[in-house]
Amino acid sequence: MTVLATTLIGECASDLLDEGYDRWEDTDLLKYLNSGERQLIYFKPTSYTISTPFQLVAGTAQSLPAGSVELIDITRNMGTDGATPGASIFRVDPKDLDETMPDWRSDTAAAVVIHFMFDPNDRKAFEVYPKQPAAGQGYIEAIRSTIPTPIAAVDDAINLSDEYSEPLKNYMKFRALSVDAQISDFAYQRALGAYNLFVTQIGRKDLVEKSLPAKRGSNGNPNQSVSQ
Question: In the predicted model, is pLDDT for residue 207 greater than 70?
Answer without folding.
Answer: no
